[in-house]
Amino acid sequence: MLTYGQAYYDLRGSLQPLYDEGEATAIAHAIMEHITGADKLERLTEKDVPFTDAQQQQYTHTKELLLKATPVQYIVGKTWFLGREFMVNDSVLIPRPETEELVEWIISDNKDKQPTILDIGTGSGCIAISLKLGLPQSTVTACDVSSGALLVARMNASNLDAQVEVKHIDFLNPEQVATLGKYNIIASNPPYIPESDKETIHANVLAHEPHVALFVPTDDALLFYRIIADFGLQHLTDNGLVYCELDRDYAMQTKELFEAKGYSDVEVRKDMAGNTRMLKAVLKK
Hints:
Blueprint: H1 4-15, H2 21-36, H3 40-45, H4 53-67, H5 72-76, E1 78-81, E2 84-87, H6 97-109, E3 116-120, H7 126-134, E4 139-144, H8 147-159, E5 164-168, H9 174-177, E6 183-188, E7 193-194, H10 203-208, E8 215-216, H11 223-235, E9 236-245, H12 251-260, E10 264-270, E11 276-283
Parallel strand pairs: 3-4, 3-6, 4-5, 6-9, 7-8
Antiparallel strand pairs: 1-2, 9-11, 10-11
């Protein structure tokens, strides 16, 4: 049997062809904690403790998954978003730090208000749930086309005690969209990667994260932004707000689209990495 120390170094070394040293180290620590239940300090003092039979089998299986580029978040079944633990599986995208920045922008703009909010393409529910917890007086609805994603979102809302209504809505189906009501705020991290860009995507994303939440037709990269903008014209209240995450390569085109649809004060912002990744638009009726 491998010891805790041997397993950690073996896993870290095996991952370095796939990841840089820092990421390989972080993944190895996360997996070892998942298998042993011991944090980094405990494992340091117990580095000579051998695996049990069950732990050895779990380690071998987990290592095989990691070497196939399976994201560590799917293996451990959870990730962190704005300081809260969210369940994730391969029905949902793994929440990213830039999405945290979008949520923080919305909360900052709307403190002490009681907005009605719609989150389009909710996935794990990280946006909708974080908005409800960050704006306790808000009324939040989350929708998604994926039944698997909706199950995850409902479980996260329950686990985090967030009162969020979760609906099955295909935003490419006008009849389903027409059943939705009026909102003060629309939030979305929609699919925005053109199909032609697939070869630029990291293997662990392309092979394991849901394509329905990632990709749009190559010849219609702004598909969902156009749908969201048109939806807002009918379903936003006066001075209603749209907040979206963006593809940095199409950020200015998306801004121009919202302006052409009649939105005002359209603002784009950069994320911490310096990429233009967020948009806010106001609809004045």
